[in-house]
Amino acid sequence: MHKHKIGPFIRSFVFFAILFFLATSVATIIGNMISKKALAYGDLWELLLIVSMGLALVVAIVLEWTRRRQQEQIDLFIEKMQAMRAQNAYGGKVLLRPDDPLAPLANAINDVQSLNRSRTKMLQQQASVLNVLLENMPIGVLRIKPNHEIVQMNDQAMYMLQLPDNAIGKPFENVFKSHQLLALVNQVLDEQISQREQMEIDQLDVDVFVTYYQLRERHDEVMVLLYDMTELKRLQKMQADFAANASHELRTPLSAIIGFADTLLDGAQDDPEVRSEFIQIIHDQAEHLLALTNDILTLAKTPVQNKSVEQLPIREMVDETFETQANTVKGLQLTLYNRADAHTAFQQNRDDVQTILTNLIVNAIKYNQMSGSVTVTAHADQRQCFITVSDTGMGIPSDQQERIFERFYRLDKSHNKKIPGTGLGLAIVNDLVQSLGGNIHLESQVGVGTKITVTLPNLPIDKRKSKV
């Protein structure tokens, strides 16, 4: 035993030995006086001393055991309180008998421990939810202390600002590349007010919102929120371009129809030859207007969910499309080759595949050369369907191949004025293929021809909706 643990025991033993010795001595003397008997003092004092020391030892042992037990309980209470302060694992509860003097204190500590455990668990859950939210939200988020140190960021912020993995813990001036963003964050830190600004960061159009807030007294932070507006602005530009192009394309045939109709009403109808020519022009422009309207409506149509899927006779569908273009094919003296696999399991929506086939084949025929050819191949495996349309036409220059699927885009418009069309066929194919989860591959060489391959998922057939 250590000295500081032995001391109380010895003091208790000595105290009670003396106390019991005096008490028994007084009691013995009084007893002798009453009984008028005398005992030998040597034997008497020896007996009293032995009895006193024995009783003192028993009492001292009991008191020491009680003291140590209470000290162990107090040490346990202290350990529990320290663990709760440090937010460590608390372990089990402190269990004492109900009649123990320290039982109320043990119950109070157990209650506080349970409450802290519940609060810690709730905070951990909230932190996990917040982290998942930050990592998966499409907004870049950074937290910055007033000393300019970055304390938190998500992957989207790292991507948008091109930050290194070890940016956390560093001053933002050392990792930000945009001077405009640096100036905005510094302004918020100096003025302690929120600011919002749109800027270009590393070829991205970003809407930046920087807010100054207080977590608790004397603890402020700055949060930077980054909204990537690049795709939205691209779509807005496409929408504006589409509206402008659609207005122009619609205005052209309408102006022609109105112009020739006015000429007829002004007297040209009296000349049979002029009347016949103008009526034919009005008819052709009306057909072009109708085709243009249909294509615009097709592009604007919302994709239908849960389309019916069936096993398609792809070879027969190619033949039917060839037949609808018989007059154009005859005028250009083209040769058509249908090399679609007649035995393949081609499982898709009929209307979608027919739209894709028609636009690809019509485009290959219109932009072909005299005495050229158009070849269609189609096959499928268990996962995908493949349609390839090849022509021997004028081809597409390499610098224009990326734009060929844009709406209203036509190659060399001055050269192609005599080629009928709306400029929307390949745009319709592109939008439809993307909505179906497929992709398009283009190969072309000027003066040689063009080959377009469409890949679509080979869908399982719902027997309740399939056609026989």
UniProtKB/TrEMBL annotation:
MF GO annotations: phosphoprotein phosphatase activity; phosphorelay sensor kinase activity
EC number of this enzyme: 2.7.13.3
GO biological process entries: cellular response to phosphate starvation
SUPFAM superfamilies hit by this protein: ATPase domain of HSP90 chaperone/DNA topoisomerase II/histidine kinase, Homodimeric domain of signal transducing histidine kinase, PYP-like sensor domain (PAS domain)
TM stretches of this protein: 12-35, 47-66
Gene3D superfamilies cross-referenced by the UniProt entry: 1.10.287.130, Histidine kinase-like ATPase, C-terminal domain (3.30.565.10), PAS domain (3.30.450.20)
InterPro entries for the chain: BphY/WalK/GraS-like, HATPase_C_sf, HATPase_dom, His_kinase_dom, HisK_dim/P_dom, HisK_dim/P_sf, PAS, PAS-like_dom_sf
GO CC annotation, single: plasma membrane
Location(s), subcellular: Membrane
UniProt-listed PROSITE patterns: HIS_KIN (PS50109)
Domain of life: Bacteria
Keyword Transferase carried by entry: yes
Key words, A-Z: Kinase, Membrane, Phosphoprotein, Transferase, Transmembrane, Transmembrane helix, Two-component regulatory system
Primary location recorded for the protein, binned into one broad class: membrane
Reactions accelerated catalytically: ATP + protein L-histidine = ADP + protein N-phospho-L-histidine
Record's protein name: histidine kinase
A Pfam entry, by short name: HATPase_c
